[in-house]
């Protein structure tokens, strides 16, 4: 299949490489052309614009950082819709807001092309290993095209519904839940450490008991060791998703006191100079600092 791929960050590059390895003809675009080199060397074609990557494609994937970036690469003068032929499908794997997903669904319908939202749960190593959990939503005829491709990229594809924005809401809810786990791990490690229990041993004990799940294992180890680099998912992106979750909940008239608390934690840790080079689990430094348990000033 002819595939265009827009966005070659740590997640997008791994996903695009897996599509290429699966035997598809892949044409890629990234704003920073240096990121295209590994795929070019592997045999993929490099496009000069999103429109060029879309021109001959049956399906175009996008995996970019935020709403503004996706809107730009999709609706810009040389964007995806400028090149995508009628009947083709755009699969957006980015974590974006519900309003943006709805607006893009309308624009794609007006252009006569399909739009599927398929955000993912998983970090770059999971993307490379085809172990992502993918949430997909879109019209049935578009999902029939998208799902077989998505199944090549992850360990499961959950069908959320017929409205693309529903998949984006599920992803935001999931990230909200993960952010609360990070906060609780920070507080728990602070209490254990203050009592003289080695935080790494504490996390090991719990993750071999009732908390034997990847989020507790991955983030528990990072928080217990206070090692937040390199960033698998950067702190500003986590903060962005928290804002999008609060906006979606407000639009629905749903109070989220825990998300509001985590929002303030993000602001506090950013005020300490923690930024894009740190994993979003560094938000746990707030609890550790409050308890006098932070290792590094």
Automatic annotation (TrEMBL):
Residues 166-283 form the 3-hydroxyisobutyrate dehydrogenase-like NAD-binding domain. The keyword Coiled coil does not apply. Residues 2-161 form the 6-phosphogluconate dehydrogenase NADP-binding domain. It comes from the Bacteria. Coiled coil: none annotated. The active site is at residue 171. Keywords: NAD, Oxidoreductase. InterPro entries: 6-PGluconate_DH-like_C_sf, 6PGD_dom2, 6PGDH_NADP-bd, HIBADH-like_NADP-bd, HIBADH-related, HIBADH-related_NP60_sf, NAD(P)-bd_dom_sf. GO terms for molecular function: NAD binding; NADP binding; oxidoreductase activity. Pfam families: NAD_binding_11, NAD_binding_2. This is NAD(P)-dependent oxidoreductase. It comes from Cupriavidus lacunae.
């Amino acid at each position: 299949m002819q595939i265009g791929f827009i966005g070659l960050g740590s997640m997008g590059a791994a996903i695009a490489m897996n599509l290429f390895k699966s035997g598809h003809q892949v044409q890629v675009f990234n704003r920073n052309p240096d990121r295209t080199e590994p795929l070019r060397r592997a045999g993929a074609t490099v496009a000069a614009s999103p429109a060029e990557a879309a021109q001959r494609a049956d399906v175009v994937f996008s995996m970019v950082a935020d709403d503004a970036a996706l809107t730009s690469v999709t609706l810009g003068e040389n964007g995806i819709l400028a090149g995508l032929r009628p009947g083709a499908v755009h699969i957006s794997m980015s974590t974006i807001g519900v309003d943006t997903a709805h607006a893009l669904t309308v624009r794609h319908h007006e252009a006569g092309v399909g739009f599927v939202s398929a955000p993912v749960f998983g970090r770059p190593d999971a993307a490379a290993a085809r172990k992502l959990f993918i949430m997909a939503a879109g019209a049935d005829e578009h999902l029939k095209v998208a799902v077989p491709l998505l199944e090549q990229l992850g360990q499961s594809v959950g069908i959320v519904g017929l409205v693309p924005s529903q998949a984006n809401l599920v992803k935001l809810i999931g990230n909200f839940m993960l952010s609360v786990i990070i906060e609780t791990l920070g507080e728990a490690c602070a209490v254990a450490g203050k009592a003289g229990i080695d935080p790494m041993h504490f996390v090991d004990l719990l993750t071999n008991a009732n908390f034997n799940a990847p989020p507790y294992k991955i983030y528990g180890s990072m928080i217990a060791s206070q090692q937040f680099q390199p960033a698998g998912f950067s702190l500003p992106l986590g903060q962005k998703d928290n804002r999008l979750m609060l906006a979606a909940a407000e639009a629905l008239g749903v109070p989220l006191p825990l998300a509001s608390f985590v929002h303030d934690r993000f602001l506090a840790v950013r005020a300490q100079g923690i930024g894009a080079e740190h994993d979003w689990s560094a938000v746990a430094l707030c609890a550790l600092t409050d308890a006098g348990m932070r290792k590094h000033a």
